[in-house]
Every structure is written in C-alpha cells, then in structure tokens.
Amino acid sequence: MCQVLDIDDIGLSRWAQVEAIEAKERGETTKGREIVRVVENENDGTTVAPAVQSKGPFKLLLQDAKGVKVYALDLRGIDGINTSMTMGAKLVMRNVDVRRAVFMLEPGGVQVLGGKIEALDKAWKDGRKERLVNAAKAVDEAAS
Asked: How far, in Å, CA of 91 to CA of 138, rounded?
C-alpha cells in the first residue's frame, strides 16, 4: 500500500496543462473546438463547469508506510488515477513490474482506495500552476 504525493500528466505539455488550469479558473472548458462556459445550477445557485480529463499517461510519486518514495508510471489508464485525484490517496498494488526503480502500473494490479491528506492536497493544488510554469520556463531556457 502506498499513498500519492504527486502526479504528473506526461501526456500533455506543461504549457497545455497551464492553459487548461487557466481556462478552468475562468470557468471555461472545451468540447472539440467549441468553448463551453460555466453553467449556473438553477436549484442551488452553484456553478458547474464540465470537466475534461486527460487520459495520461501519468507519472506518480508514491510513498509507503516506512516513508520510502518511489516513482510509478500509469501508461494504460487506471480508473481513479488522474490529475484531479486528491493527494494522500491510497493505492494497493499487487504483482507490479519494476523497471529501473520505477513501478509500472497495470489496471489489474492496482486498486485505488481513495483518501486525502488535507494539508498535502491543498498545498499541491495551490502550487500546481506555478510548478508547471517554472518547469516549462526551465525547459525553454535550456533549449535556447
């Protein structure tokens, strides 16, 4: 059993992820080429924007009960693993291949139990956009 400390969508560029976060902040999402605005719920006045989830692949930073941290890759798409999952969520893994110290996650070998560590989750979500922007800028600077 491990808990999720970080998750990276390696299927989208960092700039595309930043744009998706900014669109969500504005209350927008896309459906094909069409931009969909936030819809206000008539019953209780809350606003709901349709969510578009990336299908990955995802790189996760996991920690076990002893505090050992390892990276894992979800290349095939496991239900419950995405960038909107809560940090601190627990995963049960069985018969997982390990290649070059990275866990290779398969749908049949991983069960997402859920859970949340409030402080970790809040800090991760609050700092995600800034981390993506900084990482994208570092790559741009290294390329030039």
From this structure: 32
Using CB atoms within 10 A of its CB, is residue 95 exposed (0-12), middle (13-18) or buried (19+)?
A: exposed
Q: Are 80 and 60 in contact (CB under 8 A)?
A: no
| Contact yes or no for 49/29 (Cβ under 8 A) | yes
pTM of the model: 0.75
- Beta-strand (E) ranges in the chain? 2-9, 28-31, 34-37, 39-40, 47-48, 58-64, 69-74, 90-93, 97-99, 102-105, 110-114
Closest listed residue to residue 18, CA positions, set 94, 97, 111, 83:
83
Tens of pLDDT, residue by residue over 27-73, are: 776 666 565 665 555 555 544 444 456 777 999 999 999 999 999 99
Domains and CATH numbers, the chain: 2-143 (2.40.50)
Burial state string for 112-131 with b = 16 or more CB within 10 A and e = fewer than 16 = eeeebbeebbeebeeebbee
- CA distances 134 to 13, 42, 55, 102, 128, Å, are 13, 39, 23, 25, 10
